[in-house]
Amino acid sequence: MTPNPIALALTLRDYAVVEETTKKVSLIGEFIAVKAPIFPSPPRSFCAYTVLTDGLGECIIELVVTRLESDEEVYSVTQPGHFVSRFMQLKVLFRVREFSFLQPGSYEFVLLVDGQQVAQRRLRVYQGEVNS
Q1: CA-to-CA distance for 2 and 10, rounded, in angstroms?
Q2: Closest CA relative to residue 47, chosen from 27, 19, 32, 65
Q3: Is 131 part of a structural domain of the chain?
Q4: Residue 60 belongs to what domain range?
Q5: What does the pLDDT look like over 49-107, one tens digit per residue?
Q6: Helix, strand or coil for residue 27?
Q7: Does 104 reside within a domain?
Q8: CA-closest candidate to residue 112, choices 12, 28, 5
Q9: If pLDDT is split at 50, 70 and 90, which confidence band does 26 have?
Q10: Is residue 75 included in any domain, yes or no?
Q11: Cα–Cα distance between 67 and 62 in angstroms, integer?
Q12: Number of folded domains that form the chain
């Protein structure tokens, strides 16, 4: 894709609701850290969301999660994207299902478009009792 798009943000959320008729996205429960009682952590589902702009044409959008202490890639998922014009905003939602953090530490979520990094978000994972 030429040119490379710009990510307006990359956020991690507990849930995302997409309204069927308007395609409006409601994001619920932003988090920047995760607490788990044991490791590997119990599986949890969550969403990664971004809005891309300034792209043109077809592209492949990828979300890659790396454990920073070991530089080990622990998760990756891709989806196609299409920009009709450079003026459009492309909403990108990844639903991460039943994900377990292998160990406590720092994890980095990187968003790539056609192999080029456009956004990143770090997440701290630590051990502790989870409040209900």
Answers
A1: 21
A2: 27
A3: no
A4: 6-126
A5: 999 999 999 999 999 999 999 999 999 999 999 999 998 999 999 999 999 999 999 99
A6: strand
A7: yes
A8: 5
A9: very high
A10: yes
A11: 17
A12: 1
Q: Quick one: pLDDT at residue 33?
A: 96
Q: In 3D, which of 59, 27, 46, 60 has the Cα closest to residue 107?
A: 46
What is the CA 7 to chain-centroid distance, rounded? Answer: 12
- Share the mean pLDDT of the chain: 94
CATH number at residue 103: 2.60.40.10
Contact 105, 67 (CB under 8 A): yes
Q: Is residue 1 part of a domain?
A: no
Residue with tokens 């490791």: 39
Beta-strand (E) ranges in the chain?
6-18, 25-30, 33-36, 44-53, 57-67, 72-83, 89-99, 105-113, 116-127
What is the tens place of the pLDDT at every residue in 115-128? 999 999 999 999 98
| CA 20/CA 9 separation, integer angstroms | 23
Q: Which of 48, 18, 17 is nearest to 30 (CA)?
A: 48
